[in-house]
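ligand=FE2/S2 (inorganic) cluster
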Amino acid sequence: METKETPFRKMVFVCTNLRETEDRPCCARRDGVALHAQLKEMVRDRGLHGRVRVCRSGCLDRCASGPNVMVFPDNRWYSGVAAADLEKILEDIAAGL
Ligand code: FES
């Protein structure tokens, strides 16, 4: 095994978990997949893709407040995210890069 620093300055996890049944909420049914794609595109468009990695994540265990996005190493959590929030989230992510 080899250990090294993460190749990205920031890691962004967007929950895209889909539950097959609708008895419990899930981020996929609240636009999590689209939010992931849009945020990834915004990062690419701003030339940040070498420093910021936008990943899909499985359930982050805060389903009722989703869609959820978390950013490391900023230790920042966004819940109830809508497409209109992505610009602000990206602004936060870009700060300090
Ligand atoms: S499904 Fe997204 S936090 Fe659980």
